[in-house]
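User: Sequence recovery, please. Input:
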């Protein structure tokens, strides 16, 4: 963590900050328009490839008949899972989410490039699969997903779906700038989680409002055979960048670090 980032976080801890809903949303939407098509195409192609790969591995491991039987609607209800099945599914989702976190970082970096009129390519999506970023992104996402899944499993078995939803939203909210803090602020995984919680806690309602609006806008992508979601989803990552830029910002030292 460089000194400017550390000082900024300490200032926020003591004094808080102002955050204008309209300005942040306008900023996020402006950058989104620049990355929507390219980012959406990359997301769609990557999703198709990884889905085929995962499905192929699962069929090779368990057989097509067993997989098709498992995919019956009644078998996909989480309340019908036994402990071992729930553990396997939860572990797989946590690890997969952590492995894919550098892609999220790549989309956020695209928003940065779009604002600064820098070229971005397919390689931008994958540039955080390298040291030191990958380890910190993996650890941070793994820890957050692990906590979220453990709490969600407990609440699911307690049959309190409303509480499950509230806690899931709260975790997503308070870790919303965790990844930007790692890739731009050069924070370690645990530092980024702690800093994100501190920062969001100063303006939770404004940030929640931004998150809700952008999630609703992104969900509109399901219209059109669901494919449109790949082209509306980048709005969320543009929002993560816009929030980080508005609250933390970039000094000269940090800009050089990001570009390099």
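Assistant: Recovered sequence (260 residues):
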């Amino acid at each position: 963590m460089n000194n400017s980032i550390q000082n900024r976080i300490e200032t926020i801890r003591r004094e808080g900050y102002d955050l204008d809903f309209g300005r942040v949303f306008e900023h996020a939407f402006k950058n989104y328009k620049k990355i929507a098509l390219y980012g959406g195409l990359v997301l769609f192609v990557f999703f198709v490839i990884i889905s085929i790969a995962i499905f192929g591995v699962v069929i090779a491991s368990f057989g097509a008949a067993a997989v098709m039987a498992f995919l019956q609607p009644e078998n996909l209800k989480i309340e019908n899972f036994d402990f071992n099945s729930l553990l396997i599914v939860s572990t797989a989702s946590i690890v997969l989410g952590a492995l894919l976190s550098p892609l999220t970082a790549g989309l956020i970096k695209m928003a940065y490039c779009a604002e600064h009129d820098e070229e971005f390519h397919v390689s931008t999506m994958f540039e955080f699969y390298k040291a030191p970023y990958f380890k910190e992104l993996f650890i941070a996402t793994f820890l957050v997903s692990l906590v979220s899944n453990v709490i969600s499993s407990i609440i699911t078995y307690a049959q309190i779906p409303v509480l499950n939803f509230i806690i899931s939203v709260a975790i997503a909210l308070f870790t919303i700038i965790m990844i930007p803090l790692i890739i731009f602020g050069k924070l370690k995984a645990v530092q980024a989680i702690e800093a994100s919680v501190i920062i969001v806690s100063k303006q939770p309602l404004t940030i929640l409002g931004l998150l809700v609006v952008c999630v609703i806008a992104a969900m509109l992508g399901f219209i059109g055979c669901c494919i449109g979601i790949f082209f509306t989803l980048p709005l969320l990552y543009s929002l993560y960048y816009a929030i980080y830029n508005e609250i933390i910002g970039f000094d000269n030292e940090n800009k050089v670090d990001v570009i390099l």
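The chain has 13 helices and no strands.
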